Amino acid sequence: MRVYASAVRPLLFRLDAERAHNLTLRAAELGGRSSVVRRVAARSFSYRDPRLETSLAGIPLANPIGLAAGFDKNARAIGMLGALGFGHLEIGSVSADASDGNPKPRLFRIPEDRGIVVAYGVPNDGAAVVRTRLEGPRRVPVGLNLVKTNDPARPAAGPEVYEDYARSLVLLQDRSDYIALNLSCPNSLADRDFFDELPRIDGLLSRLAACDPRVPVILKLKPTRDPGVLREIVAIADGYDFVGGFAINLPPGKPPDLDLRSPRETLERLPGAVGGPPVERYVNAILETLKEITGDRYALIAAGGVSTAEAAYRKLKLGATTVQLYTGLVYHGPALVRQILAGLVELLERDGVPSVRAING
Fold this sequence. Notes:
Blueprint: H1 2-12, H2 17-31, H3 35-45, E1 54-56, E2 59-61, E3 65-67, H4 78-81, E4 88-94, E5 107-110, E6 115-118, H5 127-132, E7 142-146, H6 159-172, E8 178-182, H7 199-209, E9 217-221, H8 227-237, E10 243-248, H9 264-268, E11 273-275, H10 280-294, E12 299-302, H11 309-317, E13 322-325, H12 327-332, H13 336-351
Parallel strand pairs: 3-4, 3-13, 4-7, 7-8, 8-9, 9-10, 10-12, 12-13
Antiparallel strand pairs: 1-2, 5-6, 6-11
């Protein structure tokens, strides 16, 4: 991590954020094609300890730290990413048809807060292309994050939304270990509020039930602190046995209660949603409420502000089954995963907890 902070990050931060991300992803894609490079990366970055083993909706995981959707939108670099010590990878968001996303610039750093502002608008190559990149064996389980195709000329309307998700599910479920349904992309402005009418979630799940889902389905929810809304969503999910859990999306825009050092007036000029440490407390409050509602019936995937073992541990103690990160890699590099895993083992030992599975009793 010292090498990354002193040599690599300064070079990347001289570039536009999206260009730096694309170069990083390209390097990972090329490196992942070599079995030698993958083995070297695995020896350098992996951290194994049986106390870290857990499961996600019945899927065995070597550890509870995953890569969040958004880092590799098109499954270009899963060979290398799978060698960096993650317990699982989430790819996407992927839509039925390809999409260019929002106009550039659409990714910004906020170094004072070790955060980012994301306004991508779901650019991706489409489900059929992503499917071709998911052939063959993988080192770690891979989930596919699905979203409606972002087409400003065709905002979300009725059954065509359900059909869009259904097309992606049919194409991708046999190439994934789980499917996550992104129900509120914060940067797809024409579509992000579609599922605010909760019966539409039932409509979507009813349509997907006809596709015979054969892997667990995770519902990635628009963040809300209203326990009544969360209870209603969970009650809808209870009617579909293929729903295996929930995740919480980034809040759209710049909510007033984010933890920010950056001047808010500067941040407000940037389009998009904030990710990283500023949203940690915001998301954790929702996670705690969701856990109280679901009990042990569902897996919970938690992201938002995970750049230390302590931050991951907080989420696990609040009820998360697994914890995902993305922004932390931007500021700390690929060694972050190993550091967090080693730190989790120390925290388990400190608290006399025998394993990650036992954190929530």
